[in-house]
Design brief:
By secondary structure, the protein is of the alpha+beta class. The protein has one domain: 3-Layer(aba) Sandwich (Aminopeptidase). It is 30% helix and 32% strand. An 8-stranded mixed beta sheet has the order 1-2-3-4-5-6-8-7, with helices on both faces. The longest helix is centred in the middle third of the chain and has 14 residues. The protein is globular. The termini are far apart.
Amino acid sequence: MTKPIAHVSLQGTHVRLEPLDALSHAVDLSRAIDKDMQRYMYTWWATPGDEDAMRRNIAETLAMPAWFSFAVIEQSNGRAIGSTSYIDIRAAHLSLEIGSTWISSAHRGTRINPEMKLLMLQHVFEGRCFDAPAIRVQLKTDLRNVHSQRAIEKLGAVREGVLRKCVVMPDGYLRDSVVYSITGDEWPAVKVGLEARLRG
């Protein structure tokens, strides 16, 4: 059986990741989501401006097995500007996927995403997520979403291949997913790269 991840907040300079909660985060997240995200998102987030739908979406997310979801909080104002999750948590194999990630358009290309990834990967690879350091972290994205692929590659993740027609999108589109991974022995170099980006 998969060990649940303990509720934890991850603190950075620009961003804080705190356990996702409908009461605390639904209003901000309903305002942060963009219509242009809908093309690529196959989770429940694509409901711009609809607070009630966002509360339902969060409830559904929190009920997912082997998931642990965070709200992405901008430190400067305390507002939720996105969400990200550990998914497919496999404690017995010291492995998980970072996914279901989005941040508002206004915050793309800033220090938010690299710091968010640094916090999550550090939590996983340096022994505070599982009982021992993780062996592997996986990331996936829509084959059509070139921007997301470039962002994942900029992390230093290794592209492994494409899962063909592996997800049925809400509009019926059969999504191909590009699979990337970072292994424990690659983490030190990935960490150095993320820290350099945050200093730059």
